[in-house]
Amino acid sequence: MNQRQPSVALFVTCLVDQVHPEVGIATVRLLERLGFKVLFPAGQTCCGQPFYNSGFPAEARRLAKKTIEDLEGFDTVVLPSGSCTAMIRAEYSHLLAEEAEWKRRGEELAGRTFELSEFLSQQGVGLRTGEVYGLVTYHDSCHMCRILKVREAPRRLLKEAGFKVVEMREPDRCCGFGGLFSQRMPEVSSAMTEEKLRQAAETGARTVTTADPGCLMQMRRIAERLPDSPEIEHLAVLLERQNR
Amino acid sequence: MSAGMREFRQRAQIALEDARLQNALENATGRFWNSRREALERLPDSDGLRDHFKEMRAATLADLAPHWRTFEKMAEMHGTRIHWAQTGEEASRILLQVAGEHGAKLAVKSKSMTSEEIRLNHSLEASGIQTVETDLGEWIVQLAGEDPSHIIAPAIHKTKEQVADLFEAEAGKAVPADIPKLTEHARRRLRGRFLKAGIGISGVNIAVAESGSLVLVTNEGNGRMVTSLPPVHVAIVGIEKIAPTWADAAVWLSLLARSATGQPLSIYTNVITGPRQESDPDGPLEVHLIVLDNGRSDLLGTKYEEALQCIRCGACLNVCPVYREAGGHAYGSPYSGPIGAVISPLLFGLERNVALPQASSLCGACLDVCPARIDLPRMLIELRSDSVEKGLLPAPERIAELAAARVLEQAGLMELAGKIGRIGQRFASKNLPKLADQSFREWWRNR
To answer: Residues of B with CB below 8 A from A210's CB?
Structure first.
């Protein structure tokens, strides 16, 4: 039995590691409960996206190569982050375009790297239906829905786990994070987040959920300043809570 | 025209604090966006059409000169006079010369973003030629002494009450803040100007090479008046807005209004092929076309050539979450929103517009809706990278990024930095992410 247990390598992402470890913990527990053996390649740090997006391609390239090396030899890599998955899947081959061997290795990694809900959905795992505990609204994080084109999987999983999902007017409107954008343009960034949270509140949902730690961090930070904001949780945390 | 970091943030702040503006922006852009989506859904294969359009635009730009040679030959055959302008100053000079030859003292204008780009109205007014914008939105903005804040809806930031006040100040009598009454007032005021004007100035949506024709679309009919009532019509066009054939122009038109406002076609689609002829006695005595480069040809053959595929539909503005909060004036350029954030630095200098490539969360909504599928997020990233290379990023930020990358290259260093950060963050800005008490990897090791 143990020999046939499928294993997945967790690329937890730097943001989850340092800021939202509960997301990584929930991801591990959920995957294990669903029958996967979870491995944690210890050398892993950051996929390089923050550097790529802010105009430091050389630094991004170094981190991309490091990530490729760290994740070599694992059949399947799972991330609790749509945007880091999109970085590996869509941008590594551009970033490494001029180094054929690295480009090949990047593309090879891209082929076995999956965002968590995408992975669970493809595996056809059966989630346990927990007690329904209120309305949830799902925020489509930008790179998850526009680059990975994953929109349905997280919603399906939420419903399977017993949540009633209500939609925002613009579920795929950016939450305002954008990495360093939130630091460089804090006024506009916060206004974008407030708009997002306003739309979330309009749905009457008790919880806003998303598959990206960046959005989670941003929405929580701004929600703290606002009265009556819904609770904000990562998808992995909600799914794990229902599958205890 | 410039947008440094502080300038952009300050102008955006003004917009953010203006509740009426926020409302107007949100509603108008939302309406355009919905209409666009419905209009594209009604096409049998809008994705295929956009792919085809992109290929056509890319192929045209890859070999621009022969198309302009064909255009010039055909247009001159029909009596249009072509002027080539390297810079905005040159274009203004040409226009003033034509106006001078005809002793024009009053110019009427149909909406032209290209003329905004070169600040043509300033040059005209400085030479004593009274210039009246006749597109309703442009006229409102002109009366307010402001710049347009949206590519296709220049006065998107104005409420009807504000418009009524502007009209009252211009006419010297009260005008009710009621939209039909406001437009009727504008029609009446502008009618006399059309008849008196010595010169009509317009932009061009598409120059069609095979027949030497100019295509101009409007919703108000003012374009038709500007290009047919005054004795002289001068049109101004950027070198990128050329379609080799009418078949190409047809695809272009099928996407332009749908992407802009959701209309299948604008109310008026004018085709101008030269001045009046014996066989066609309507229209002006002379038609002039100023073909403007103003930095565009420098982009040909570079990683930014794709930006020239833009047809100025404004769809990217309507979906941009940054534009929808910050408004158009924050960009300090006639071109705002995602396309403005890309082309303003390219045409007017990155040094003077350092904030623009940063004014994006890279959400990608613009790429999703662009009729030419221009990869604006990619170009924003390229411009950020250029900014770093040109030393336009403040030194502390640059050093912090380089140091952070070094730290992240080793898991041990990252962990150490995290531990130091947890202590240090007690004294740090509340805007920074708060580090967890125990990192994931510590939990993993201890489980």
So the answer is: none
Per-residue pLDDT of chain B (447 residues; tens, 9 = 90+): 799 999 999 999 999 999 999 998 999 999 999 999 999 999 999 999 999 999 999 999 999 999 999 999 999 999 999 999 999 999 999 999 999 999 999 999 999 999 999 999 999 999 999 999 999 999 999 999 999 999 889 998 898 999 999 999 999 999 999 999 999 999 999 999 999 999 999 999 999 999 999 999 999 999 999 999 999 999 999 999 999 999 999 999 999 999 999 999 999 999 999 999 998 888 999 999 999 999 999 999 999 999 999 999 999 999 999 999 999 999 999 999 999 999 999 999 999 999 999 999 999 999 999 999 999 999 999 999 999 999 999 999 999 999 999 999 999 999 999 999 888 887 776 667 789 999 999 999 998
Q: From chain B, pick out residues whose CB is under 8 angstroms from the CB of A56.
A: 385, 388, 401-402, 405
Q: In what order do the strands lie in the sheet with A135-139?
A: A164-165, A135-139, A207-210, A231-234
What is the residue-wise DSSP string for A207-231? Answer: EEEES-HHHHHHHHHHHTTSTTPPE
Q: With CA atoms as reference, report the closest residue to A138 among A99, A162, A165.
A: A165
Q: How far apart are the CA of A20 and the nearest CA of chain B, in angstroms? A: 6
Q: Does B303 touch chain A (CB under 8 A)?
A: no
What does the alpha-carbon distance between residue B321 and residue B338 come to, in Å, rounded to a whole number?
10
- How big is chain B, counted in residues? 447
For an interface test with B, give the residue of A54, A150, A197, A225 to mutate (most B CBs within 10 A). Answer: A54
> Which residue in the block uniquely carries the two structure tokens 């002109």?
B142
Question: How far from B419 is each of A22, B212, B409, B423, B425, CA to CA, in Å?
Answer: 17, 69, 16, 7, 10
The reply to whether residue B436 touches residue A19, judged by beta carbons under 8 angstroms, is: yes
Interface size A-B, in CB pairs within 8 Å, comes to 154
Residue B277 is classified by DSSP as: B
Rounded Cα distance between B82 and B73, Å, is 10
* pTM (2 d.p.): 0.95
Residue type, B56: M
Alpha-carbon gap, residue A136 to B196, rounded angstroms: 63
Host H or E run for residue A40: none
The radius of gyration computed from the CA coordinates of chain A, to the nearest angstrom, equals 18
Q: What is the amino acid identity at position B312?
A: R
Could A63 and B436 be called an inter-chain contact, meaning their C-beta atoms sit closer than 8 Å?
Answer: no
Distance between B421 CA and the closest CA of chain A, angstroms = 10
B358 with A187: Cβ contact below 8 A:
no
Please, is B97 exposed, middle or buried when counting C-beta atoms within 10 Å of its C-beta (0-12, 13-18, 19+)?
exposed
CA-nearest residue to A143 within chain B is B363
C-alpha distances out from residue A21 to A237, B148, B295, Å: 11, 47, 50
Rounded to whole angstroms, the Cα distance separating B82 from B88 reads: 16
Question: What Å distances lie between residue A146 and A106, A143, A189, B44, CA to CA?
Answer: 21, 5, 20, 22
Closest to A142 in 3D by CA, of A60, A211, A223, A231:
A211
- Nearest-CA distance from B17 to chain A in Å? 10
List CB contacts (< 8 A) between A147 and chain B: 364
Is B149 in a helix, a strand, or coil? Answer: coil
- State whether A21 and B436 contact (CB < 8 Å): yes
Residue in chain B closest to A55 (alpha carbons) equals B385
Question: Judging by beta carbons within 10 Å of its beta carbon (0-12, 13-18, 19+), is residue B380 exposed, middle or buried?
Answer: buried
Backbone torsions φ then ψ of B435, nearest 5 degrees = -75, 145
